[in-house]
What we know:
The complex is a heterotrimer. By secondary structure, chain A is mostly helical. Chain A has 15 helices and two strands. In chain A, helix 1 (13-23) packs across helix 15, helix 3 packs across helix 14 and helix 8 packs antiparallel against helix 11. The longest helix of chain A has 32 residues, at 81-112. By secondary structure, chain B is an alpha/beta fold. Chain B has helices at residues 3-19, 24-34, 53-70, 84-92, 110-114, 121-125, 130-133, 137-140, 167-172, 181-193, 206-220, 224-230, 240-255, 271-277, 290-297, 299-304, 341-350, 355-363, 374-380, 384-396, 404-407, 410-424, 430-440, and strands at 45-50, 74-79, 100-103, 153-154, 159-166, 197-200, 281-287, 306-309, 324-327, 331-334, 400-402. In chain B, strands 5, 6, 7, 8, 9 and 11 form a six-stranded mixed sheet that branches. Chain B has a five-stranded mixed sheet with strand order 2-1-3-10-4. In chain B, strand 1 (45-50), helix 3 and strand 2 (74-79) form a beta-alpha-beta unit. In chain B, helix 1 (3-19) runs parallel beside helix 15 (290-297), helix 11 (206-220) packs across helix 22 (410-424) and helix 22 (410-424) packs antiparallel against helix 23. The longest helix of chain B is centred in the first third of the chain and has 18 residues, at 53-70. Chain B is globular and about 65 Å long. The two termini of chain B are 23 Å apart. Chain C has two domains: 43-87; 97-304, MetI-like fold, CATH 1.10.3720.10. Chain C has 15 helices and no strands. Chain C is globular, with a radius of gyration of 23 Å. Chain C starts with 26 loop residues before the first helix and ends with a helix. Chains in contact: A-B, A-C, B-C. At the A-C interface, helix 2, helix 4, helix 5, helix 6 and helix 8 of A face helix 2, helix 5, helix 6, helix 7 and helix 8 of C.
Amino acid sequence: MTAPAPAPAHxxxxxxxxxxxxxxxxxxxxxxxxxxxxxxFGVFALVPLLLVCWLSFTTWNGLGDPRWTGLxxxxxxxxxxxxxxxxxxxxxxxxxxxxxxxxxxxxxxVWAAGxxxxxxxxxxxxxxxxxxxxxxxxxxxxxxxxxxxxxxxxIGPWIGVPSxxxxxxxxxxxxxxxAVGAWQFVPFHMLMYQAAARNVPAHLYEAATxxxxxxxxxxWSITLPQLRNTxxxxxxxxxxxxxxxxxxxxxxxxxxxxxxxxxMPFRMYQQAFKSFEMGxxxxxxxxxxLFGTALSLLIVRFSGFSRMRSTxxxx
Amino acid sequence: xxxTEIRPAHSRRRFLTGIGxxxxxAAVTGCSALSPGSGxxxxxxxxxxxxxxxxxxxxxxxxxxLRRSHSSRAKLTPFPNTGYTQxxxxxxxxxxxxxxxxxxxGESLRPYHEAGLVVDLADRFGSDTRWRxxxxxAALQAACVDDREPLGLPVRGMQPVILFCNQTLFDExxxxxxxxxxxxxxxVDAFVDADVIPVSLAGAESWCELMWLECITGRLTxxxxxxxxxxxxxxxxxxxxxxxxxxxxxxxxxxxxxGQAFGxxxxxxxxxxxxxxxxxxxxxxxxxxxxxxxxNDHRRFTEDGLSWVxxxxxxxxxxxxRALVGNNTNYLxxxxxxxxxxxxxxxxxxxxxxxxFIDALIKAGDVPAAVGIEGRLRELAPDPDxxxxxxxxxxxxxxxxxxxxxxxxxxxxxxxxxSLQQIFLEKLSPRQFVDxxxxxx
Amino acid sequence: xATAPAPAPGQxxxxxxxxxxxxxxxxPQRTAxxxxxLSRANIPGGAASLIWLxxxxxxxxxxxxxxxxxxxxxxxxxxxxxxxxxxxxxxQTVLEGGFTNAFVNTAIVTVVSVALTLVCAVPAAYAVVRSxxxxxxxxxxxxxxxxxxxxxxxxxxxxxxxxxxGLYDTKAAIILPTVAFGLPFAVLILAGSLRDxxxxxxxxxxxxxxxxxxxxxxxxxxMSRGSIVAVGIYSALQAWNGFLFPLILTQSExxxxxxxxxxxxxxxxxxxxxxxxxxxxxxxxxVFIAYVLARRWIVxxxxxxxxx
Lengths: 315, 441, 308
């Protein structure tokens, strides 16, 4: 299966349309084929998205029915210093998560794509954390970070925390969440990079070697550009993943110490299912949805996905 | 994790594992936990409770007796502790909620009372007050929402907060458990010098830190100011006792009373209990359920090296030194939407004070809230010394304040718990704490 | 490339669903012309790998050694020491705690979620790539917008809906929203791989007298097998990891999911860290076995996600 010389993606919309209607006489699937997906997505994703907006204008404590209260929740939310705080925490978790995981995954993935001895075994071992669920990972790390009986006591002195008090300080708790996220997800992304790096044509490197380019330069000028698509997909998953970190926070720090690790999803959960203030929690959730939508738009615009969509519209 | 979610679970499960020392016992009871509610009748009274093989067995026996006296069928639906509050909230919002439900009193009962979902027992029993006179008044306190007659009756033992001491360490260093604040400070200094953590504190879970605030405030001033705080009155946090208590806490932190790493110590994973029992920390402020945890997990220490005292008095304090805080007990209440309110009231109003039920609780290690059971405690309790101690302090207590986190609106509680953690980390000053809480009130 | 069948043992270096679609050359050239990176030692990569390996292995080592000790042994020995005495008591505690039931529930939820995702997403992706319907085009745009919306954000309305629909405390309550929020990504990946199938292949099918349904069955599915595996594995991971939906939408022990079972284990048997480690290991065991048995598929499948 060879791709046609001018890849469909690069054709203009109109050209593609004509090509489709005139030269392609294949039987086409009707809209029916998209109906099951649309139905599930519509009922359990779109309807809730609309409902959450509506709920943000109501008061509801879980008993009885939601009661319309207009803009009250939104006024409270926008004057709540906690919102800004949780936004900041979420931003830190997301950015730091990405900034820690991407270079690690890239480095490890490219390494694992090579031919070194022991590489296969090493990459199989590195893969292991992925087998644990997020909850399991967080529970294990919580035990590991116990300052009296866990690893924290042994390792603390090496990393400048002689008392092993890692979860007990604001910065430490945040770092712990980022680190646990990396421990858990780097293998996954590493694998994506590993596969992509193997598909970089060898002749590119050969040519570069002849030109006298060193290893580092080859990485920047060949490997990285060739992995561009993978970087986009991996980053998308990472950003969405870190932004929505939930059980790690719930289990590892429960939002603490103080409010140091209260990200937006955590805060929403707390308001909704610990304080039973569904209205304010829904307002917060709506903000989360808005962020998610904006992020989707960004991804679609700056990735190959948008090309896919234009192809489609052309059909 | 909130206090509400964790505390009772510990005493329950821990006790179970202890009983099943032979292993077989644990296997049998453990299996019964796998199939909650199965085997019982399909229709009839639905009684919601927390999963706990030992307690569930005692509760089922009470339901069986109810069937004899009221010819009403009833089934027990046990839930795991985690998320019970949410599940109850959801079910009570629908028409097929439980007929009889378990709560911690205080704020875990109030919303249902306000929604008209809790049967008024006083109303049902009229002028006959035996139903409530059978219990110690202090233990009923948390079920008396807005100073009304109790809206539920005790289904478990009483769990006041107690200062546990590692007597072995105290003896080694020639010290004695503190009775006053100054003695506490001396003891703290002595242990710090001896490189022992004076107080085991699970700072990762702020409800453990809250006990310090509760106890110090209780010694400084009576319950008056607290009532205003719980009622959400403006300015109520500005009572000087709050700020002073917070200040004393921060002074303890600076003295090293809780060690250097308390912020990472958690109660849920057993860290705080273990450093105390393993001799790395000398004192441990915790609810009385901790006794069964210690007994099951660290038996030798509990038998040879454990002692306990009430919280020390604080100089200048006007609070009664006999006053207690903690979990008064757990309650069963009746849902007004129940199809068979009579049977529910029968269960709560008569079976919970019945002798077989109380005796079964005592044998399971609980200290029931019933009046006049000292003799039976001495005879039946697995550890009569401790059981009698708990029973007496509660009987003598002029006041038994429900843990603050269970007496407040959930939103206020979450804010308080997270601000309190910052007090212990010295990220907030007492004044800032008060300001922050006032903002929320 | 997507036509590659299950990777044969000798082919492990070339996953069935490799990288960027636009580089798809003919298969024969690919195997010949593409070798892994330079064989020269990658020193920074190697060093990083060694360090990372330690970071990964030390916690796993702790889990393993802690899980075979009793509580006192664990508390008295250091965290890194070898266990002095082995005990099966933790295993017993875990199995008594509803583990088996939770495991079966999780397996059911995972399998049904994956099946439902694929049943919905494969035809949808086919329609997205080949249909002329405006509805489909619109639907795809909506899917794209849902790409990064966190499922957690709608937990409140989902909970309201599930309660009102009478689905509360059922497996469907977990499965349906999980699938719904996994669909955008699934459709996207599948559509991406179908896009690479040349139009001529579809025409050939039509010339053979095949309608859309047969085309789906004998062209689309075989052609996107690699992506189907990738999407299947990804949604399996999502379902296996699910926490918030089960936490809020189920209540009883009969419906309990593994992640919640572990969490409850911690709150109910708090002090028992070795028991917790045993439970965690046990929960990972089936995935580990699946991983060992189907490692190539899984690795190739996961790797395929990076393609588009």
